Automatic annotation (TrEMBL):
PANTHER family per record: LEUCINE RICH REPEAT FAMILY PROTEIN, EXPRESSED, LRR RECEPTOR-LIKE KINASE FAMILY PROTEIN
Segments forming domain Protein kinase: 648-912
GO biological process: hormone-mediated signaling pathway
Compartments where located: Cell membrane
SUPFAM superfamilies: Protein kinase-like (PK-like), RNI-like
Chain residues that bind ATP: K677
Origin species: Brassica campestris
Residues passing through the membrane, by range: 584-607
Name of protein: non-specific serine/threonine protein kinase
């Protein structure tokens, strides 16, 4: 393998006796020279994995001796020349992973010796030409991931040597031709992700050699042909997301080689075939969202190979303790929304790799067996909406990996166990609709990641514990329909809280004025308590219906729609209304000045805490202002910064952002630094300055840019950073040459580095920091392409004594929806921006409208090819898997509802 660059010299066309020409896996650019058409003796042409662009020259049709052409993994565009039909000796044609457009030339049907034809992962349009049916020697036909339309020509059935036919991910319509049943040598047939209609032709069952049949995500109707029982070698059968009906033929499971069977999201009825796992190799079984019924076959109970199983949304019956066995490789099982009965088996703890155990919405009874509390690897336990009884033991605290615990809708009694405090990864807790009694444990304050908690419809008593006020991630809290008493505690620290239901309790006293700090709150129900006094003046109460406030005799409000008695006008209120403007100004200025004093004190405290060696320098003219340089190389003077930038001459300008301009400064000690000079020192930019200093003096992470010093003079306000040689990620991606050097491995490492830094900022600090402006312009790269997050001018510390209600911040195209319309700051705002950034890294440019599409349609699937940077060749399998994982995570990050986005801790763990 070489690393040639530049263009292919046209002089190669003079080597008329050349037989073999291979320039693969280089960095060649430009077009394929038409002079290569002179190589009449050439038998092999390989230009694979370069960055060749332009169209395929029509002169390629002059290579009458050529047997193999491989131009895949380039950036070739335009149509395939029809002259290619002249290559009568051609055996293999590989043009996949390019940007070719136009129709598949019908002239290809003239290539009688053709054995392999791969035109996949391009942008080809039009119909599949029927002339391809003439290719009697063809064994491989790949046309997948194009934009082909029309029907599958029945002539394809004449290609009797075909071993693999992949037409998936196109816009094909019509029915599956019965003539495909003539392909007696076929092992792979992929037609998924098209718009095919009609029934599955029974003739497909004639293909006894079939190992991989994938017809998912079409509009197929009717039943599965009984002839599928002929597939004795079948390994993969995908029929999911169609409109298939009727029973599943017993013959479907005849193959002893079956590994994956996906039949979900159809209208299948009847019982499962008894032989569904007789071969002992079945790993993936998905049957959800059908109308299946009856017991689970013994072959499934004994299926030791099973890794993932979904039975949800059917009518399966039987004793759940007897229907399922021990599965050493199982990591996911969902039995929800069926009619299983009996008790939970103690054997589940023998499935050592099980991460998700879901049995909700059945008729399961009895206590949870103690063996369940030994499953320390469990990430989700959902036993909701059954008839389970008993007391939850303290051993529940053993499940330290749990992120979701749903036990609602059962008949559990006794106290909520204190052991729940050990479930520190828990994000979702639902114990509602049970018979829990006594008080709410104070120790629930030990769940720092909890965003949903529902304890409603129990028999909980006493006061709401103060410990709940420490659950600062909480967005939904429901304590309704209990016997709680006392006053509502100060919940203002729950700045992420959106929904609060305290209805149907015995709460009393006034609603604290501190509720006004809960800017995220959009829904509240306090009905049927003994509360009194005025409602706080916030939108959640202002928009509350009369139903959400009723049953509190002492409440008052002057809003007519709430149907409460009016609040009395006090003498203090009358006096307040008569204040003159001067007094009003005083009342406004006093808290503002007080806040500035506190901020200044906090700022000084943070700087004093900082321990690196530091020098200070104040010129006479700048006395009373501040300059602090943190440096390991000795004293650095203010004048040296001015001198090295020639008083911020534009020649030294290396970047401009929303908060200031960045200059390159080479100091006398040989150190190069970046100096960010803030725009005119308005109050806003002073705040940006303080935000950035405060944030960066607190952060110690390899993927966050280092602050080396700062200056705040009347003349200048600037920050001094370590210098990042490559500049911003946006700059690198905007340059074709730089972007090509930024290969897939480097891009993956950039995404991982940013993920680790954000996880640290959000989860590994006592006061989380939200950046609020994650974008490619704020990710800086060093010579080794190690990423560092910069520009903390809009950063916000999420503390229990500060508000999450904020002005809009961020870069257009990266701002989370809730910041755009509600101005509510949480870590999930950064998660959204990170999702945009991931797609930008893969695509090589901002994903544009794709962002809003994914945000509004979270079920959208993306192919890697459709969003990959065309300047890079498609990656090898291992790297491709990493990129596909990134795409899936990005889609999750772009969910419109912040509650459904993953945390950066979860994302960082996924990338570890």
């Amino acid at each position: 393998m070489n690393r040639f660059s530049g263009t292919i010299p046209p002089q190669f066309g003079n080597l008329t006796k050349l037989i073999y020409f291979d320039l693969s896996i280089n960095q060649l650019t430009g077009e394929i020279p038409p002079e290569l058409g002179k190589l009449r003796n050439l038998e092999t042409l390989h230009l694979v994995e370069n960055q060749l662009n332009g169209s395929i020259p029509s002169e390629i049709g002059l290579l009458t001796s050529v047997r193999e052409i491989a131009l895949y993994d380039n950036i070739l565009s335009g149509p395939i020349p029809s002259s290619i039909g002249n290559l009568s000796n051609l055996v293999n044609l590989y043009l996949f992973i390019n940007s070719l457009s136009g129709p598949v030339p019908s002239e290809i049907g003239h290539l009688a010796n053709l054995v392999e034809l791969c035109l996949d992962r391009n942008s080809m349009t039009g119909h599949i030409p029927s002339s391809l049916g003439k290719l009697k020697n063809l064994t491989l036909l790949n046309l997948f991931e194009n934009k082909l339309s029309g029907e599958i020509p029945p002539e394809i059935g004449d290609m009797t040597s075909l071993d693999s036919l992949t037409l998936h991910t196109n816009n094909l319509t019509g029915s599956i031709p019965p003539s495909l049943g003539n392909l007696k040598n076929l092992t792979v047939l992929h037609l998924y992700l098209n718009h095919l209609t009609g029934v599955i032709p029974p003739e497909l069952g004639n293909i006894e050699t079939m190992t991989d049949l994938e017809l998912s995500q079409n509009k197929l109707t009717g039943s599965v042909p009984h002839s599928f029982g002929n597939f004795t070698k079948l390994q993969f059968l995908f029929l999911r997301e169609n409109m298939l009906s009727g029973p599943i033929p017993s013959g479907v499971a005849n193959s002893s080689e079956l590994i994956v069977l996906q039949l979900d999201t159809n209208k299948f009825t009847g019982f499962l075939p008894d032989t569904i796992c007789n071969g002992g190799k079945l790993e993936n079984l998905t049957l959800d969202d059908n109308h299946l019924e009856g017991p689970i076959p013994k072959s499934v109970r004994d299926c030791k190979s099973l890794m993932r199983a979904r039975f949800t949304g059917n009518r399966f019956t039987g004793d759940v303790s007897e229907a399922f066995g021990v599965y050493p490789h199982l990591d996911f099982i969902d039995l929800s929304h069926n009619k299983f009965h009996g008790r939970i088996s103690g054997n589940w703890d023998k499935s050592r790799k099980l991460l998700y155990l879901i049995m909700s919405n059945n008729n399961i009874t009895g206590p949870i067996p103690p063996e369940i509390w030994r499953m320390t690897q469990l990430g989700e336990l959902d036993l909701s909406t059954n008839n389970l009884t008993g007391v939850l033991p303290e051993a529940i605290g053993n499940l330290t990996a749990l992120t979701r615990l749903k036990l609602n809708g059962n008949q559990f009694s006794g106290r909520i166990p204190e052991g729940i405090r050990f479930l520190t990864k828990l994000e979702y807790l639902d114990l509602s609709s049970n018979r829990f009694s006594s008080n709410i444990p104070q120790t629930l304050n030990s769940l720092p990641n909890l965003h949903y908690m529902n304890l409603s419809r129990n028999k909980l008593e006493e006061r709401i514990p103060m410990g709940l006020t420490k659950l600062i991630q909480l967005s939904n809290l429901d304590l309704s329909h209990n016997k709680l008493n006392g006053e509502i505690p100060p919940l203002s620290s729950l700045e992420s809280l959106e929904k609060l239901d305290l209805s149907y309790n015995n709460l009393s006293g006034q609603i604290l004025p501190s509720f006004k700090d809960m800017k995220a709150l959009i829904y509240i129900d306090i009905s049927n308590n003994n509360l009194e006094g005025p409602l706080p003046d916030i939108p959640a109460f202002g928009n509350a219906t009369a139903k959400a406030l009723k049953g509190n005799r002492g409440l008052c409000s002057n809003a007519s729609k709430q149907r409460l008695k009016p609040c009395p006008v006090t003498s203090a209120a009358i006096k307040k209304s008569k204040k003159k403007d001067g007094n009003l100004v005083v009342w406004i200025l006093v808290p503002i000045l007080g806040a500035l004093v506190v901020l200044s004190g906090t700022f000084t405290y943070y700087l004093k805490k900082r321990k690196p060696r530091r020098t200070e320098d104040k010129s006479d003219s700048e006395k009373g202002e501040s300059l602090s340089i943190f440096s390991s190389g000795g004293k650095v003077k203010y004048q040296e910064i001015i001198k090295s930038t020639k008083d911020f001459d534009p020649r030294y300008l290396i970047g401009t952002g929303g908060h200031g301009k960045v200059y390159k400064a080479k100091l006398s000690l040989g150190t190069t630094v970046a100096v960010k000079k803030l725009h005119e020192t308005t109050e806003i930019t002073k705040q940006d300055f303080l935000n950035e200093v405060r944030a960066l003096t607190e952060i110690r992470h390899r993927n966050v840019v280092k602050l080396l010093g700062y200056c705040s003079f009347r003349r200048h306000t600037f920050l001094i950073y370590e210098y990042m040689e490559k500049g911003s990620l946006r700059k690198v991606l905007s340059s074709d040459d730089e972007a090509k050097r930024l290969d897939w491995v480097k891009r993956i490492n950039i995404v991982k580095g940013v993920a680790y830094a954000l996880s640290y900022m959000h989860h590994d600090r006592s006061s989380p920091i939200v950046h609020r402006d994650i974008s490619s312009g704020n990710i800086l790269l060093g010579n080794d392409y190690e990423p560092k997050i910069s520009d903390f001018g809009t950063a916000k510390l999420l503390k229990t004594d500060s508000s999450n209600w904020s002005a809009v911040a961020g870069t257009y195209g990266y701002v989370a929806p809730e910041l755009a319309y509600a101005m509510r700051v949480t870590e999930k705002s950064d998660v959204y921006s990170f999702g945009v950034l991931m797609l930008e890294v893969i695509k090589g440019k901002h994903p544009g409208e794709l962002v809003s599409t994914l945000s509004s349609s979270p079920g959208t699937t993306l192919s890697l090819r459709s969003i990959s940077d065309e300047r890079l060749r498609m990656p090898e399998a291992e790297i491709r898997d990493e990129l596909l994982k990134m795409v899936k995570v990005a889609v999750l990050c772009l969910q419109a509802n912040p509650e459904f986005r993953p945390t950066m801790m979860t994302i960082a763990a996924e990338f570890s």
